[in-house]
Amino acid sequence: MDIVIIASLIIAGLILFIIEVFLLPGISIAGIVSAGCMLYGNYYAFDTLGTIPGCITLAVSALGVVAITIWFMRSKTVDKLSLKKTIDYRPEPLKGLDLKVGDEGIALTRLALIGNAEFNGRIIEVRSSGDFIDEKSKIRVERILDGIVMVQKA
Predict the structure, then answer these.
(1) Could you give the CA distance from residue 29 to residue 140 in angstroms, rounded to a whole number?
(2) Helices (H) and strands (E) in the chain, counts
(3) 64: closest CA among 6, 110, 118, 108?
(4) What gap in Å lies between CA 146 and CA 32, rounded to an integer?
(5) What is the DSSP letter of 130?
(6) C or N: which end of the chain has fewer Cβ atoms within 10 Å?
């Protein structure tokens, strides 16, 4: 009967280990209960059966964790669960804003090299091309590079 209890604890621990590692990553109830089942199963084997069967149970438990991990990683289950999409979206903050060199606006925040400004009723992020610019100052677009608006004090 002791062997059935030990085997049940080890098998339950291995099943919960799979659930913890591959289905519910992070530290959750499944991981804690898995560790508890495995530890108590090994403790029970050492306590009731002796040292040699306890060491065999410990080795079988460790090999079981390694074997299940290798088997699960090689199976197609991980591929089915994995994310294969890539994000190729690039935000275009200047889209729809007819902004060109020489346009004037107002700095909404202090431009300590980077801040917000209002041009044509829209708020965008801008960079100062040199000095700090106080908020509510009039600014002028100096150049536009790859969606980055460089401004200077007007």
Answers:
(1) 59
(2) 4, 5
(3) 6
(4) 50
(5) S
(6) N
Phi, psi of 145 (to 5 degrees): -125, 115
Distance separating alpha carbons of residues 35 and 12, to the nearest angstrom: 10
**Left (φ > 0), alpha (ψ -120 to 50) or beta: where does 70 sit?**
alpha
- At 83 the pLDDT is 74
Q: What's the Cα-to-Cα distance from 115 to each of 7, 124, 129, rounded to whole Å?
A: 64, 8, 12
Q: Give the list of residues 6+ apart from residue 116 with CB closer than 8 angstroms, or none.
A: 107, 108, 109, 123, 124, 125, 126
Q: Can you tell me whether residue 127 is helix, strand or coil?
A: strand
Q: Tell me what pLDDT residue 89 has.
A: 63
User: In this structure, what DSSP letter does residue 26 have?
Assistant: S
What stretches in the chain show pLDDT beneath 70?
A: 78, 81, 88-90, 93
Structure tokens at 113: 């090299």
Q: What is the DSSP string of 64-114?
A: HHHHHHHHHHHSTHHHHHS----------TTTT----TT-EEEESS-BBSE
Q: How many CB atoms lie within 10 A of CB 2?
A: 12
